[in-house]
Amino acid sequence: MQPRALILLANGTNRDRDVAQALALAGANPVIMPLQGLRQSKRSWNDYQILILAGGFSYADALGAGKLLALDLMYYFADQTAEFVAAGKPVLGICNGFQALVKAGILPANEANPDHSEITLTFNQSGHFECRWVTLKPLSQICLWTRRLTDLIACPVAHGEGNFVSSNPAVLQQLISHDQIALVYVKQDGSMADGEYPFNPNGSMMDIAGICNPQGNVLGLMPHPEDNVLPYQYAQWMRRSGHSGLPLFQNAVRFVQGRESA
Amino acid sequence: MKMTQHLQLSTYRVLVGNRNHDDPRSSAYLTDAHALGLTAISQITCYDLYFLYGTLSPQQCELLAKTVLYDPVAQSIQWHTLTKNHEPVLFTGGNQATIEVTLRPGVTNPVAEQILRASQTICLSNLSAVSTGQRFVIQGDGITEEMLHILASRLLCNSIIQRYALGEIQPVFPSQAESTGDVEVFHLTSWDDETLMQLSKERRAALNLEEMQTIQAYCIKENRHLTDIEFEMIAQTWSEHCVHKTFKACITVEGKQPQVIDNLFKQTIQEATRRINAAWVRSAFKDNAGIIDYDGVHELSFKVETHNHPSAIEPFGGANTGTGGVIRDIIGVSARPIASTDVLCFGSLDITFDEIPAGLLHPRRIASGVVSGIQDYGNKIGIPTVNGAILYDSGYTSNPLVYCGCVGIAPLDSHPHQLQPGDRIIVIGGRTGRDGLRGATFSSMTMDAQTGEVSGASVQIGAPIVEKGLIDVCMIARDRRLYHAITDCGAGGLSSAVGEMGKEIGATVQLERVPLKYPGLAPWEVWLSEAQERMVLAVPPASLAEMQQLCELYEVELTDIGEFTGTHRLVVRYKDRIILDLDNAFLHEGIPQKHLFAELPDPPNPAGYCGDINLHSVNYNQILLALLAHPNIASKENVVRVYDHEVQGATVIRPLVGINNDGPSDGCVLRPLETSNNAAFSLSVGINPEYGKLDPAQMAVNVIDEALRNAVALGADPDRIAILDNFCWGDPNNPKTLGSLVAAALACRDAAIAYRTPFISGKDSFNNEYLGADGERHAIPPSLLISAIGILPDWHNAVSMDLKKTGSRLYLVGDFRPTLGGSHFKLVNGTEVPDGIPACQPETARIHYLALYAAICDRKVLSCHDLSEGGLAVAAAEMTIGGRLGIHLNLPYKDELRACFGETTGCLLAEVDTGDCTAFEAFFRGLSCTPIGVVSEQPLLSISHAGKTLIELPVNDLVSAWQGSTKGAVSHAA
After folding, report:
1. Could you tell me the CA-to-CA distances from B649 to A64, A227, B158 in Å, in that order?
2. Which CATH architecture is the domain A4-261 placed in?
3. Which residue of A has its CA nearest to B118?
């Protein structure tokens, strides 16, 4: 059966249709819902098996990217979100959605200091917004989105605040030891970026592009794999194929289908 | 908002800073300060500043500050109450000073609005108003007060929308004055000419005496007076911006063969479209945008606007609202906006402050503000900015050009024109303030040293998130057929939108229903306000409830302001008074035709002419590197990368292409998400002010060719390309200026017909001149932008410009007749050349394009790049940069200097696999198609002629020259 994916549309979310296309190609049935509609209906989200926070500029990025969407998650949808996460269902925050998940404390959600996650996504080291293609290496095997992915993923980044920073080395250590580093920026040949610009486009610590929660069902990442799911979208399509972002979404769909048949 | 009496009103001042002291924003400001010559400054640290006003308790302020206003990991925060007798800290000398900047009251402030919304989210209902700003702490030895004022006025604050203080700034919240509803009445039936003109001037109406007399005659005929709102509406309806008086004028062309042109637009641009009569053109010059058939299922709409005058005085806001405005044009034809384009012309970035006329901003400041404005709007609304150009010329110092374009897609024939009496007049989107008042007439006037101050209200800041809501709502409303007609609020605001929509049948508006941002607006201000992010829809009463529901779901405000009537009169009421009552026919057709005189230009040398030059000591290597480093040719990567060109997932060929994604594409190719077949479309441009200065007529043909050539290089079908014209010219009352316009427009007609490329939309901008404090008039070079939209039946056939394969052959396709007139060689070499500009032969070029297109469809072309500024050598160099491969070229032409650096029209380089050469050549039987080189693995560009090596340069050197000079050209601080 087709898993139903709920895509949250805040004011200023703008990659909702991009991710809907990726999910549909992966075999899911995506539904884009304005937050206002969800606030009015107060229904549970039990009908959905996948939750997506799409990219964009929710609330114009006023007061920091993702900040006000995080507030919505904490004040209006705390129960629904918590239920979704606790049930182990796939949750994905891309770019602005990742920023919101972090600022709402849903990521990384590890034990070290749970009230205060001590990580953030702040201004790029370059000081401005940048749109460019990057190469990602999937790492985490506990993350249901990235496990068993062998190919690199090429896709664009398009953000001004994607610099992954932690003020506490213990938090980073825990991300490593719990296998929560889902994706890292690498060079085109797959070798380590090691902070080198532009392979690591924003100065993120340890080249971190995406992290997951300790259970592995919630993934947040800055780049946009949803914009490389069709052959012509790949910036190098005239030279070669591959490096698609689609397997990431297929992983989640397979996960849901596997759960249901189990 | 109601206040509870017993609670005390307080203002809190909240300061948020970065924990990390070398934050990029602060260091960008420091770099810019040093560029201003303020080298005594050693550090600038910036903070965000918030003023919270309401009956908040200190605990509530703390909750709001900690929950909403800062990032605990990256930032620090502090706050305190501002007491009534609070003494602000001022600058008293020393090594440290502060400057604080806030927005003027009434300027759109999305951050403040979001803080108010967020306070509701966390259940605080007693925050009444918010104001935001920035605090700059400046350090350095020997800082003076004068230095701080220079820093503030030239870098940190634009007085059009902001104010600053040395030391702490006091917050101001929008005043609470009540609206008076005042309407002034002009009894102008008895006025003399002088008094009539005085009114035109006082109200900055930009109407001439004949037009004022026509208005007077109308009043005498109808035995009536005019209210201020009626006068203002006539002034804006009759403005150059709205009716294109110059293009519709009766023009007497003087000279050897005098002739009279009674409507330049009809006889040139529109005539070409009429004669070509392409079945796939669905709407040309009728709607807010031109519309063409796409794939038999969808239609594409395209519009390009200019926002020059606002961008000159408030670059960020000008470009920001320019982008937002043209996007609304696309929503106004019921289409989803899917791509933005931007062509920018700035003054030289190296000019010193002494050389800039009084009252103007430095080109560097304009450039960075304009780029930030486009970035802010396009990225936030989620429309990819995929194509454009940036040109520099001292002629644009006072008068930059900002051309903003937008493409939309819609199911075929889904844009309704079914207005009926009884339909409600529905306004959706943002609220109305005193924004951009008189923008239509302002953009029709020459800039003078006071324009910046007097027209202050003419520029606003956009709110892209609000407009995103309009797209969401309008697309659903279109699909559910909830409206009979739609248009955007642009220049002239509601007066223009409702006036245009109700042109055929009439309308009655109840003006006090229009929701306002703040009270205190006079009725005429409400009617004329150019507040952004508003659309007007004609909604049948039966659909109103569903429309209302839809708007609530997407948090878009909807207001019913009146009715379309069928009386053929436009009536505006304010409560129970009629304050405007005009006959539609007079309003829309009453304007007297202008009579103008034109003197055709006389180019110094005919196009295509090559004179005698003696340049024996030319160092070809140095010239090539200098050309690659010239700001017009050099990489624009630092600008392109701040625009999101990937959102919506449609981008097939990007602005930067090649193995390292950094080569200069000829344009872009998109395959929209909405479609399910393989069709794609290209966007490309042509513009050349250097040619415009010498020969406006041939310039027009050349830039049409350039736009088409780029489209063909990308793989577009030459028989499926439509074009848009944007003329940016000086003062048409000057016969020479008008003559160059007439010459260019006539040439446009002939060229478009020859190429069979119909014009589908256009917009002109005149009076791009500046009256300096020195009393001299400064005009821009004649600047015609041609934007082309072309169809590719299959995206697989798209071709990029970067070399693909070692060993493949390079062909020069097209009638190669290079000249040095108006060339970039002349610019970098500095020598005078006696040549004319390239002579374009549209018929010849077209045959070559058709042959090349056939070869591309047969997949015989690996890469393709057009020859433009800098000629053959630059085109070849750019291809090596894109592919990081080498080329060995052997020039089979006599005149090696012109062959290398001369400029041409109708010529392209095509890379062909060795195995495909015979098949490729077969497409060009009887045409010009010359094998001139081979692609090599060794990354080296070598160009030789008759056994002599002219150019030999490693690709890395080409890359450094091409990428080097623009580093930091556009700063990102603003």
Report:
1. 25, 5, 36
2. 3-Layer(aba) Sandwich (3.40)
3. A68
CB within 8 Å: A132 and B661: yes
Q: Does A29 touch chain B (CB under 8 A)?
A: no
Which stretches in chain B have pLDDT values below 50?
1-6, 176-178, 439-445, 447-456, 966-969, 971-974
Does residue A72 contact residue A9 with C-beta atoms inside 8 Å?
A: no
Q: Is residue B241 among the annotated active site residues?
A: yes
Query: Could you give the CA distance from residue B626 to residue B2 in angstroms, rounded to a whole number?
Result: 66
Mean pLDDT of chain A: 93
Q: Give CA–CA dist B647/B644, Å, rounded.
A: 6
Quick one: pLDDT band at residue A262, thresholds 50, 70, 90?
low
The per-residue pLDDT for B223 is: 92
CA-based nearest residue to B869, from B660, B709, B741, B719 = B709
Of these residues, A143, A178, A212, A226, which one is catalytic?
A226
Rg of the Cα atoms in chain B: 29
- Active-site pick, B307, B848, B865, B888: B307
Helix, strand or coil for residue B744? helix
CA dihedral B716, B724, B458, B386 (to 10 degrees): 0
Q: Report helix angle B955-964 to B871-883, nearest 10.
A: 100
Contact B759, B339 (CB under 8 A): no
**pTM tops 0.90, yes or no:** yes
Q: Which of A12, A118, A127 sits opposite B468 (nearest CB)?
A: A12
* Beta carbons of A158 and B379 less than 8 Å apart: yes
A167 touches chain B (CB under 8 A): yes
Rounded distance between C-alpha atoms, residue B275 and residue B291, angstroms: 17
Nearest to A90 by CA among A148, A135, A28: A28
Provide, as residue numbers in chain A, all residues whose Cβ is less than 8 Å from the Cβ of B67: 71
- Which amino acid is located at A118 in the chain? E
Instruction: Judge whether B488 and B332 are in contact, CB under 8 Å.
Output: yes
CB B276 within 8 A of CB B287: no
- Quote the CA–CA distance of B209 and B775 in Å, as a whole number: 24
Q: Which residue of A has its CA nearest to B380?
A: A57
Residue B773 is predicted with a pLDDT of 60
**CB-based contact, A240 to chain B, within 8 Å:** no
Tell me which H or E stretch contains B571. Answer: strand B569-574
Phi-psi region of A12 (alpha: psi -120 to 50; beta: other; left: phi over 0): left
Residues within 8 A of B (CB atoms), A 192-221 only: none
Residue A129 to chain B, least CA–CA distance (Å): 5
What's the one-letter identity of residue B845? A
**Separation between Cα atoms, residue B309 and residue B206, nearest integer Å:** 15
Q: What would the DSSP string read from start to end of B383-435? A: --EEEEEEEE-GGGSSS-EEEEEEEEEEETT-S-----TT-EEEEEESPB-ST
The predicted pLDDT at position B357 comes to 78
CB of A230 less than 8 A from some CB of B: yes
Q: Choose among B912, B951, B672: nearest CA to B813.
A: B912
The reply to whether residue A17 touches residue B648, judged by beta carbons under 8 angstroms, is: yes
What's the complex ipTM?
0.96
For residue B363, give the nearest of B388, B390, B320, B396 by alpha carbon: B396
A103-122 per-position pLDDT tens digit: 999 999 876 554 556 888 98
* Cα radius of gyration (chain A): 17
The SS3 of residue B747 is helix
Chain B contacts of A104, Cβ < 8 Å?
none
| Close Cβ partners of A258 (under 8 Å, ≥ 6 residues apart) | none
CA–CA distance, A182 with A212 (Å, rounded to integer): 6
Catalytic residue among A143, A178, A212, A224: A224
Domain range list for chain A: 4-261
